Protein backbone atom coordinates (compact mmCIF):
# COMPACT_ATOMS: atom_id res chain seq x y z
CA UNK A 1 0.00 0.00 0.00
CA UNK A 2 1.33 3.50 -0.86
CA UNK A 3 2.39 5.75 1.98
CA UNK A 4 0.16 8.72 2.82
CA UNK A 5 1.06 12.04 1.24
CA UNK A 6 3.54 13.95 3.37
CA UNK A 7 4.03 17.73 3.27
CA UNK A 8 7.32 17.23 1.40
CA UNK A 9 5.67 15.21 -1.38
CA UNK A 10 2.34 17.07 -1.38
CA UNK A 11 0.96 19.63 -3.85
CA UNK A 12 3.08 22.52 -2.52
CA UNK A 13 6.32 20.58 -3.06
CA UNK A 14 5.27 19.62 -6.59
CA UNK A 15 4.70 23.26 -7.47
CA UNK A 16 0.89 22.99 -7.56
CA UNK A 17 -1.38 25.30 -5.67
CA UNK A 18 -4.66 23.38 -5.73
CA UNK A 19 -5.78 20.09 -4.26
CA UNK A 20 -4.50 16.91 -5.85
CA UNK A 21 -5.81 13.38 -5.97
CA UNK A 22 -3.38 10.61 -5.06
CA UNK A 23 -4.16 7.00 -5.94
CA UNK A 24 -2.88 4.00 -4.06
CA UNK A 25 -1.15 1.30 -6.06
CA UNK A 26 -2.97 -2.03 -6.16
CA UNK A 27 -1.42 -4.76 -4.00
CA UNK A 28 1.55 -6.35 -5.77
CA UNK A 29 2.14 -3.43 -8.15
CA UNK A 30 5.52 -1.80 -8.17
CA UNK A 31 5.64 1.93 -7.32
CA UNK A 32 5.91 4.13 -10.41
CA UNK A 33 4.55 1.39 -12.69
CA UNK A 34 2.01 2.82 -15.13
CA UNK A 35 -1.21 0.93 -15.60
CA UNK A 36 -2.93 0.65 -19.00
CA UNK A 37 -6.40 1.07 -17.48
CA UNK A 38 -9.27 3.52 -17.86
CA UNK A 39 -7.05 6.45 -16.86
CA UNK A 40 -5.55 6.53 -20.38
CA UNK A 41 -8.93 6.42 -22.11
CA UNK A 42 -10.43 9.42 -20.30
CA UNK A 43 -8.76 11.92 -22.62
CA UNK A 44 -10.41 10.50 -25.73
CA UNK A 45 -13.80 11.95 -24.79
CA UNK A 46 -12.74 15.57 -25.26
CA UNK A 47 -10.28 14.93 -28.08
CA UNK A 48 -13.17 14.26 -30.47
CA UNK A 49 -14.28 17.89 -30.10
CA UNK A 50 -12.26 20.57 -31.87
CA UNK A 51 -10.58 22.55 -29.09
CA UNK A 52 -10.48 25.67 -31.22
CA UNK A 53 -14.26 25.51 -31.69
CA UNK A 54 -14.75 24.92 -27.96
CA UNK A 55 -12.65 28.02 -27.21
CA UNK A 56 -14.64 30.08 -29.74
CA UNK A 57 -17.88 28.91 -28.17
CA UNK A 58 -16.71 29.75 -24.66
CA UNK A 59 -15.59 33.22 -25.76
CA UNK A 60 -18.94 33.74 -27.51
CA UNK A 61 -20.90 32.70 -24.43
CA UNK A 62 -18.87 35.05 -22.23
CA UNK A 63 -19.47 37.87 -24.72
CA UNK A 64 -23.22 37.13 -24.81
CA UNK A 65 -23.35 37.25 -21.02
CA UNK A 66 -21.55 40.62 -20.95
CA UNK A 67 -23.91 42.01 -23.58
CA UNK A 68 -27.03 40.75 -21.80
CA UNK A 69 -25.95 42.30 -18.49
CA UNK A 70 -25.49 45.62 -20.33
CA UNK A 71 -28.78 45.30 -22.24
CA UNK A 72 -30.80 44.42 -19.16
CA UNK A 73 -28.74 46.82 -17.01
CA UNK A 74 -28.34 44.29 -14.21
CA UNK A 75 -26.02 41.72 -12.68
CA UNK A 76 -25.59 38.27 -14.25
CA UNK A 77 -27.81 36.63 -11.63
CA UNK A 78 -30.66 39.09 -12.37
CA UNK A 79 -30.85 38.53 -16.13
CA UNK A 80 -34.33 37.23 -17.02
CA UNK A 81 -34.56 33.52 -17.85
CA UNK A 82 -33.63 33.31 -21.50
CA UNK A 83 -31.45 30.93 -23.43
CA UNK A 84 -29.76 31.87 -26.66
CA UNK A 85 -29.04 28.44 -28.12
CA UNK A 86 -26.18 28.91 -30.60
CA UNK A 87 -26.67 25.41 -32.08
CA UNK A 88 -30.35 26.25 -32.72
CA UNK A 89 -29.31 29.47 -34.48
CA UNK A 90 -26.72 27.59 -36.57
CA UNK A 91 -29.44 25.15 -37.70
CA UNK A 92 -31.53 28.01 -39.12
CA UNK A 93 -31.42 28.61 -42.87
CA UNK A 94 -30.73 32.36 -42.93
CA UNK A 95 -29.45 35.33 -40.94
CA UNK A 96 -32.95 36.82 -41.13
CA UNK A 97 -34.40 33.77 -39.35
CA UNK A 98 -31.58 33.84 -36.78
CA UNK A 99 -32.06 37.55 -36.15
CA UNK A 100 -35.82 37.14 -35.76
CA UNK A 101 -35.28 34.32 -33.23
CA UNK A 102 -32.85 36.37 -31.12
CA UNK A 103 -35.19 39.41 -31.20
CA UNK A 104 -38.04 37.12 -30.12
CA UNK A 105 -35.94 36.00 -27.12
CA UNK A 106 -35.12 39.61 -26.21
CA UNK A 107 -38.73 40.84 -26.43
CA UNK A 108 -38.69 41.98 -22.76
CA UNK A 109 -35.54 44.08 -23.17
CA UNK A 110 -36.30 47.81 -23.06
CA UNK A 111 -32.98 48.86 -24.64
CA UNK A 112 -32.32 48.70 -28.41
CA UNK A 113 -31.10 45.23 -29.38
CA UNK A 114 -30.26 45.70 -33.08
CA UNK A 115 -26.51 46.19 -32.49
CA UNK A 116 -26.35 43.10 -30.24
CA UNK A 117 -28.25 40.97 -32.76
CA UNK A 118 -26.04 42.12 -35.65
CA UNK A 119 -22.83 41.51 -33.69
CA UNK A 120 -24.05 38.08 -32.56
CA UNK A 121 -24.85 37.05 -36.13
CA UNK A 122 -21.38 38.20 -37.23
CA UNK A 123 -19.74 36.20 -34.44
CA UNK A 124 -21.58 32.93 -35.13
CA UNK A 125 -21.04 33.07 -38.89
CA UNK A 126 -18.75 30.16 -39.79
CA UNK A 127 -19.03 28.44 -36.40
CA UNK A 128 -19.75 24.72 -36.16
CA UNK A 129 -22.36 23.00 -34.05
CA UNK A 130 -20.97 21.36 -30.91
CA UNK A 131 -23.85 19.08 -30.00
CA UNK A 132 -22.26 16.03 -31.67
CA UNK A 133 -18.58 15.09 -31.54
CA UNK A 134 -16.57 15.14 -34.74
CA UNK A 135 -15.65 11.77 -36.24
CA UNK A 136 -11.91 11.05 -36.11
From TrEMBL:
Coiled coil: 65-92
GO biological process, one term: innate immune response
InterPro entries given in the database record: CPI-17, CPI-17_sf
GO CC terms, sorted: cytoplasm
Region (Disordered): 1-44
Domain of life assignment: Eukaryota
Molecular functions per Gene Ontology: protein serine/threonine phosphatase inhibitor activity
Keywords: Acetylation, Coiled coil, Phosphoprotein, Protein phosphatase inhibitor
Family (UniProt): Belongs to the PP1 inhibitor family.
Entry protein name: Protein phosphatase 1 regulatory inhibitor subunit 14B
Native source species: Sphenodon punctatus
Lineage, top ranks: Eukaryota, Metazoa, Chordata, Craniata, Vertebrata
Gene of this entry: PPP1R14B
Amino acid sequence: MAAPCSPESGPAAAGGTGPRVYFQSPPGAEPGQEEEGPVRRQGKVTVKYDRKELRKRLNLEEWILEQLTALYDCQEEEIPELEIDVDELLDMASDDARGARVKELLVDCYKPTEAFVGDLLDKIRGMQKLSTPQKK
